[in-house]
Amino acid sequence: MKSSAYEELITILDVLETALPRFIDGKHAIITMRDEGSRNWRQMEWIGFWFEHFVEKEVVPNLGGSRGPTYGTTEFDLKKDFVWDLKAHPRESKSLILNDQEAIQKCISMENGLGFIVVAGDAKYDDSTQSFKKWHDSLKGGVSSYEKDRVKRGAPSRRRKISFSPKSLHAIWFSNLADLEEAVIQGWLKSFQTNMRNSNGKPRPSKYQLELQAVPKTFLIAEITLH
């Protein structure tokens, strides 16, 4: 990768390492996102959206930068001189879902590379009565149309995460499309939801799925343990 991209990354990680809370309560995080104007406070998978919101509110004012570019329906999270996307990863999950494949490819081509900054940690989950889910549904004003459709289809409800404890930060960098192709060949970057469709029958865009523990050092350009 370009040395200037690495230097930019280090400034971001330095702020994150200091500012990132070591425990995030789900209810507090969701209410904070709502009160501070995030459009994503209703999302079930709140941890990743909270991380994006935290960087926007706590990191960008210190370092500068803006929201990243948009390709298709995918908006990347952060741009200074280089583009970075932000992900949160519960460590008990083997794989991490990235963005739309076409958007990632276009971003790498148009922006001279793309980096992913991942916060990994430990999540705790809702109880058997789904009290956190019920609280969140009530805060949103009722069960969403997505949830109603899930019930109609008989699909199981995913257990909600009620808290997240960050344990480490990781950064992965793709300099060009050849890097992306090499990651697929090596097997730690794979296709996800190919040929899948939404409940309305429309096809879902293919995404990339990444196995964080399998990323080689040539791509994992930084790794920090949080104390």
Topology, pairings included?
Blueprint: H1 3-19, E1 24-25, H2 26-35, H3 46-63, E2 70-71, E3 74-75, E4 78-79, E5 83-90, E6 96-100, H4 101-110, E7 114-125, H5 131-139, H6 145-153, E8 161-174, H7 177-186, E9 189-192, E10 207-210, E11 220-225
Parallel strand pairs: 5-7
Antiparallel strand pairs: 1-8, 2-3, 4-5, 6-10, 7-8, 8-11, 9-10
Distance between the termini: 28 Å
Query: How confident is the prediction overall: mean pLDDT?
Result: 91
Broad shape: globular
Helix and strand element order: HEHHEEEEEHEHHEHEEE
How many E-type strands?
A: 11
**What Rg is obtained from the alpha carbons, in whole angstroms?**
18 Å
Count of runs of 4 or more consecutive helical residues: 7
Helix content: 25-40%
Structurally, how many domains make up the residues? Answer: 1
Please summarize the sheet with the most strands: 6 strands, mixed
Structural classification:
alpha+beta
Unreliable runs: 197-201
Question: Into which percentage range does the β-strand content fall?
Answer: 25-35%
Explained architecture:
The structure is a single chain. This protein has 227 residues and is of the alpha+beta class. The chain has one domain. Helix content is 37%, strand content 27%. The chain contains 7 helices and 11 strands. The strands form 3 sheets. Strands 1, 4, 5, 7, 8 and 11 form a 6-stranded mixed β-sheet that branches. The chain has a 3-stranded antiparallel β-sheet with strand order 6-10-9. The chain has a two-stranded antiparallel ribbon with strand order 2-3. The longest helix is centred in the N-terminal third of the chain and has 18 residues. The protein is globular and about 50 Å long. 31% of the residues are buried.
